[in-house]
Amino acid sequence: MKQLVVAMVILGGLVSAQSSVDYLGSWSLNEAEAELIEVCERQLDITVNYTPFSGSGVADLMTELRGLATARRLPDVFWMSSGFVDEFAADGLLYNLQPLVDRDVMPEAESWNTGAFDAARTPNKTTGDMHAFPVYFVETIMYYNKDMFDEAGLDYPTATWTWDDFLSAAQALTKDDNDDGLIDQYGYYGFGRYAHVESWVYQNGGELLNAARDSFEPNEQAIEAINFMNALINEHQVAPQPAEMAGLDNPFHAGLAAMWIDGSWAMNGNRDIEGLNFGISAIPRGPSWQEDIAYGWSDMVAVSATSDDPEAAWDLVQCLAGPERTVARSGTSSIPIWRAIANSEAWLEPDQLPDNKAFLLEWADNAGPNSFTPGWGEWRGYVGGAGLQGQLDEAFNGNQTVEEALAAATDVANTVLARFYR
Amino acid sequence: MRYKAYIPYLFLLPTLLGLVLFSLGPTVASFLLSFTEWRGTVLPQFIGLGNYRELLSSRIFWQVLRNTLAYVAIYTPATVAVGLGLALLVNQKLKYIAFFRGIYYLPAITSMVAVALVWNWIFASRYGLINYILRTLGSSRPPNWLADRDTALYVLVIVSVWKSAGLPMMVFLAGLQGIPKNLYEAARVDGATRWHQFWYVTLPMLTPITFFVLIVTLFDAFRTFEVTFVMTQGGPLNASTTLPYYIYQNAFEFFRYGFSSAAAYLLLLVALIITFINFRFRSRWVHTNN
Amino acid sequence: MRSQSDIYVPHRHTKQPIKLVLQYALLAIVAFLMAFPFLWMVLTTFKTSGNIFRLPPSLIPDKLFGEDPFGNYRLLFSDYNFLRYALNTFVVATLAALGQIITCSLAAFAFARLTFKGSRVIFGLLLATLVLPIEVTIVPEYLIALLVYEPALQAIGLRWIDSLAPLIVPSFFVGATGTFLLREFFSTIPRDLEEAAVIDGASVFAIYRRIFLPLATPALITLFLLAFITNWNDLLRAVLYIKSPNLRTLPIGLALFQDEYATQWDLLLAGSVVTILPLIIVYIFMQKYIVEGIATTGIK
């Protein structure tokens, strides 16, 4: 019997000397992915069975992956979101890439944006093993409307701006054009969304989670940051209550707010708005600031724990993230992990807004913690349920205090987290 | 009619085949899953009635159930009534009536995702069309329709009725066209006014259709999802979350398949009770040829 | 028995001009209310992107006076393969709707006119499938597809996943709404019609085929439209089952303009208009038959 198996394996090897790797795409990829795969196949002398993905977001992709995981049909290589890598790794679905990264990537670490690697570490974000490999890094930054700054005679924001600098600029930028008591231009716009809140929290040295990352326990600095956001809206009135902007797709795009903090992914959307002359800058530093911390995470690819040929899969992973993922094959709104491409003119787009796009790369070097945990989508979430976002919005709307909002959010978050860490 | 006992089953064959092949498996599976904790990554874990217990002791679930019942109670009669009204309007022999029928059916075929952009603008707080009108009329603080816990659900009802009235209209129209004209002539000979004709001929003849429309609209109400998804995402603070959206959220955003299955079976239970009551009272008001 | 002249046409006797004006005015006001969001959407596709969210909202479709008023529409077909998507969607919607007409009318006839054991139970089960949200059943359904249908069909050289079949076949076979709709229509058909046929010695199938189907033409067409539209817009199944870009349907094409990070509103709106237009055409074409259906199928 044993001999038979050996003979079959040898025979199989003779028939196809090439390794074959199954690869499932992601919602963020375009038609150029097939072209990249051809290049990788040639370079690595492997066969890649590529399945494009038809869904349109992380949730769709995760649904598909869960179906495949249950059916024991996970492809060798697939895309993984920072928000779910902990859960998938804890469930034993992801191949531990750390030894391979140490062997093949770290010797030429300067070619890669290794600051982005932390998002792939699990369970601990600084000391854990990488269970996925980043392809892009995304981060939040501050967008500002240059024309509004010019009109108000203000200097543009700098990387060392403090909250006081920010507040006085926001006050100067807030105006009621026709004195009808309704403000026509706000200095800032933000609500309970993760990209908005966490940006302020981290630039004040805050943390939303405890050290073990298994409980929602915002520290003093985090609460200070949330109170500052609330004061911008309800005390200084330099930012609108979220409810006032309900039904409007984006107040920054509509020319109703001079500053806006959101992800680097919003760059292309800003460019599409004709007449929007915008720049980018750092998130202002809070009173408890110690060092610049960029709130960011990675879009990654992972290797299945059940892959027949993890080495071949790993080769493909490096190719997907490496120098062959040119700007044409990746787009310009996320930061490529391969530094040479991030530094290329094609990616920096000197003829496009903002004129300081290279700042994205500088800021990315400050990559710090994030708030992702298993169940993150439920307690933090993209939508306004009863999690942190929904509670904070009701506080910013003046319907409850920040204290009440955080108490309610703590309740929800820790119920969710307890399901994973009991 | 005389026929062998197996004949009816031949008529049902495709449906039965379809039910067994495509519905039975997933339905039974999701029922079994409702007794498990399952995220789809590792095998389901049996937890008995744990999900049901969690649901029934969850404040959010009861809030969502209340929202659902309120939604159903307003949406269902409103949609049936608007559908009937539209059908009566376009059941006139006028030039270009086909054009109007097309227009009235337009919302039913419009993609909600795109048209939500417009509806959001209509109901927007500060920069919306309705509040622009209200402010022009002198209201200093018009409601924050979509962002207010007291109004969000009702905005969804309005948009849903707009979106869904086309189907009842079409079904009622087909029903109206099928009412034999001689019934009206007989009524007119008896001196019935137009209102009497409507009340004593049109409505009774439409009752089977009305029953169908009522049940289908009721089911529709218990499945409402898209409008919530594109307009409020259940917010603020779950004030506009109804059960179907809650189920969707738990399955497709929180990946709690077992829990969301349990919620779905509770929804099924509620819907079946209401449907059963409707079927119970069917013979009281539905006119058939039996 | 019934003929053209028997069809009830209300208000035929009133032709006073003032009344006519009022009738059209009412029709027009309601039409405006129903069509406004759609019209605004169409108008928006002819605004430059900077103008979409401009406040106060601009009524002027500034793009129409620009260099490339139909630019977004052109992009859909040149860069995004919407013609292919439309073709796939058409195949899916047509086959699924045809299937519904056959399956549902057969089942509805049995439920409305035949007596058999289990009639109520089966009908109840069918209705229950209407309530259970697809969100709950889709994941088990996909698993069954992965583990059962796909291997079974692959063994005979066919595919289930990444084919149009899972979008067509299930709705081809089961149509709870349709069965219910036709059951109600069939139950309004007078008993004496079929009794006459029974005396003539017609078989049960012949009664279904020659009496019930023709009389229910408006309902059948209503059902076809309904099923066509439902399947035309189905996204959830399509997202899971379709992988190859050349098998994508229109709802997938639209969803791709919206992702986690950004929405391409201009393309999404133009794409929606393109998605709706065929439905409007199908509707206008078919609604004629809904109305004429009864009139032309008098039973001799």
Please describe the topology of this protein.
The complex is a heterotrimer of chains A (422), B (290) and C (300).
Chain A: H1 2-15, E1 19-24, H2 32-44, E2 46-51, H3 58-70, E3 77-81, H4 85-90, H5 98-105, E4 121-122, E5 129-130, E6 133-145, H6 146-152, H7 163-173, E7 186-189, H8 194-202, H9 220-234, E8 257-263, H10 267-272, E9 278-281, E10 296-303, H11 310-321, E11 335-336, H12 339-342, H13 345-348, H14 359-364, H15 376-379, H16 388-396, H17 402-421
Parallel strand pairs in A: 1-2, 1-3, 7-8
Antiparallel strand pairs in A: 3-10, 4-5, 6-8, 6-9, 6-10, 6-11
Chain B: H1 7-33, E1 36-37, E2 45-46, H2 50-56, H3 59-90, H4 97-109, H5 112-123, H6 129-136, H7 152-164, H8 166-177, H9 181-189, H10 194-223, H11 226-231, H12 243-253, H13 257-280, H14 282-285
Antiparallel strand pairs in B: 1-2
Helix pairs in contact in B: 1-13, 3-7, 3-8, 3-10, 4-8, 8-10, 9-10, 10-13, 12-13
Chain C: H1 17-44, H2 49-52, H3 71-78, H4 82-113, H5 119-131, H6 134-155, H7 165-173, H8 176-186, H9 191-199, H10 204-215, H11 217-232, H12 236-241, H13 250-255, H14 265-296
Helix pairs in contact in C: 3-14, 4-7, 4-8, 4-11, 8-11, 11-14
Describe the overall structure.
The complex is a heterotrimer of chains A (422), B (290) and C (300). With 422 residues, chain A is an alpha/beta fold. Chain A has helices at residues 2-15, 32-44, 58-70, 85-90, 98-105, 146-152, 163-173, 194-202, 220-234, 267-272, 310-321, 339-342, 345-348, 359-364, 376-379, 388-396, 402-421, and strands at residues 19-24, 46-51, 77-81, 121-122, 129-130, 133-145, 186-189, 257-263, 278-281, 296-303, 335-336. In chain A, the strands form two sheets. In chain A, strands 1, 2, 3, 6, 7, 8, 9, 10 and 11 form a nine-stranded mixed beta sheet that branches. Chain A has a two-stranded antiparallel ribbon with strand order 4-5. The longest helix of chain A has 20 residues, at 402-421. Chain A is globular. The mean pLDDT of chain A is 90. Chain B is built from 14 helices and two strands. In chain B, a hairpin with a 7-residue loop joins strand 1 (36-37) and strand 2 (45-46). The model of chain B has no long low-confidence stretch (mean pLDDT 89). Chain C has 14 helices and no strands. The longest helix of chain C is centred in the N-terminal third of the chain and has 32 residues, at 82-113. Chains in contact: A-B, A-C, B-C. Chains B and C meet through helix 1, helix 3, helix 4, helix 5 and helix 8 of B and helix 1, helix 4, helix 5, helix 6 and helix 7 of C.
